[in-house]
Design a protein that fits this description.
There is one protein chain. 94% of the residues lie in helices and 0% in strands. The protein has one domain. It is mainly alpha-helical. It has five helices and no strands. It is elongated and about 80 Å long. The longest helix is centred in the middle third of the chain and has 62 residues. It comes from Elysia marginata. Keywords: Membrane, Transmembrane, Transmembrane helix.
Amino acid sequence: MLIAVEVVELEEVVVVAVLKVVVVVVVVVVVVVVVVVVVVVVVGGGGGGGGVVVVDIVTDIFIMAFSSSSSKSSSSSSSSRRSSIVVVVVVVVVVVEVKVEVVVVAAAVAVVVVVVVVVVVVVVVVVVVVVVVLVVVVVVVIVLSIAAVVVVVVVVVVLVVVVVVVVVVVVIVIVAVVVVVVVEEVVLVVVVVVVVVVVVVVVIVVVIVSVVVTVVVVVVILVEVGVEIFLCEKWLQTFRKR
């Protein structure tokens, strides 16, 4: 009878171990997916500033072409007509440049607003997901277990990394927008490249750390379960000898 009870307890230990491994893998996968979504959404939101470059480039090409055609037509006309055409061209160029500047400022403000809204939504979603995951961990994994403590620590660490990544990306994007409004488009290209490189590096680091932590946690769980099984088998052998 006692042997049957011990066998049942041994089976329960194995089931709990499997549940622990599944919970750890699910936690890490969810957190990694959240990190990737956060980065993609934030970078996607910040990427809207690229439209400013396109607007400026198209406008410059239009102005150059218009100025060139106007200069050709003015060379074949009289001096008075040439003067009036030059005045008209100058007025058109000034108006177009003013409109372009307004578009740039409006795009910058829109990008900042979108980035702020996206960041608030993403932070709320991350907090909700982490709270739900922690509740699941506490419910499924044995309380005061080594694996439970490790999983909670992993979740907290990854959450901190996600928040730091979001804050850094948002700050870089806002600075890039401000710089674009004040300086030139070349700076925008450089800043966007830097942002993309930083984000890619951070995502790769987070994924690698998550995989390593997952392996470590699974090994800890297996060692813990192995010790429990070993102790159960020792107890069974001692009981049989008696």
